[in-house]
Every structure is written in structure tokens, then in C-alpha cells.
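Input/output pair, single chain:
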Amino acid sequence: MTGLVTHPVVLAAASDPRPEDNNVVAGWVGFAVMILLIVAVVFILRSFTKQLKKVERAKEAGVFDDPADPGPPDAGSSSDNPPTHHEV
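Output:
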């Protein structure tokens, strides 16, 4: 029974010769895939740069809280009485 299973495999291996090292090339499909990947990366980087510029403009407009700029203290807090943390 095992002779029947291995027989087609042996025939397939014998009929498909191994190419020479100099004969193996990526071809046009590989070239097209690489070009598409490069174009996709360029578009993603441009979009990312635009988003970072939008975030920077929003930060300058005061949309986000900036921890480096504490601003005016809250009316209810006092610097003399720091908040205490109770462990449970």
C-alpha cells in the first residue's frame, strides 16, 4: 500500500527538474509587489505626517491639557495641604 502512495511523489520529483542558481528570478510579479509596497509606505508616512501636524496645531490651540504647563491652580486646592493617599 505504501508503494502506491510514494510512486506518484517519485514521479513528480523526477519530472520537475531543479533549476540552476542563475535561472531563478523574481520576475515582474515580484517587482510589481515591491513597487506597490513602496507606494503604500509613502502614502502611510504622508498621512502620519499630516496627522502629527494636526495634533501639533490642536495642542497649540489649547485643545489638550499640557502636563508641562500646570496653568492656574484650582480654587479648591491649596499648596499648603497636599493630598493624602490612603492605602487600603
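The longest helix spans residues 27-61. Residues 27-62 form one domain.
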